[in-house]
Amino acid sequence: MTQNAIMHVSLQQLSSIVAIMAAAITLLFVGLIYSVVRINRLNSRLKALLRGTSADLESVLADHMNTVESTVHRMDLLEQAVAILQAKQPLCLRYGGLERYDAFQDVGGQQSFSLVLLDERGDGLVMSSVHSRSDVRVYAKSIENGQPSHKLSGEEQKALAAARAR
User: Fold this and answer.
1) What DSSP line would sit under 74-142, residue for residue?
2) Measured by CB atoms within 10 angstroms of the end CB, which terminus of the chain is less buried, N or C?
3) What share of the chain in percent tops pLDDT 90?
């Protein structure tokens, strides 16, 4: 009888062990399915990253780093060029004024003109062209800090006012 009791206890233990093993196998199977799904997702993301190339991830990343370094170098050069342009910008002639007029009563069509070109600091020039029936004369006057080097005519003053207004 003790042998049946031992067998009976052993059968209960055996059924418990089988149940535990079945639960463990079920958990392992679920874990396997989860892992396969994750691996497939990672593979598709890797293929998208490699974009159909036959290269491995390491060479793709190395190429990408080379591109980044090249871009950083080009950006540094562009920033230097922009700094140079910004330093020169106040010296560029940016503001202009033009006044057309008839210099003489017997010449029409407003072929005479006064042109003023100024930079950011108010430096520049006044150029006037006076047209008559027999010839054309051109005059130039410098402007420093907004002040002309020579006395300006009325038309030149109008052109200077127009340049300052812009």
Assistant:
1) HHHHHHHHHHHHHHHGGGS--EEEEEEE-SSTT--S--EEEEEEE-TTS-EEEEEEEE-SS-EEEEEEE
2) N
3) 55
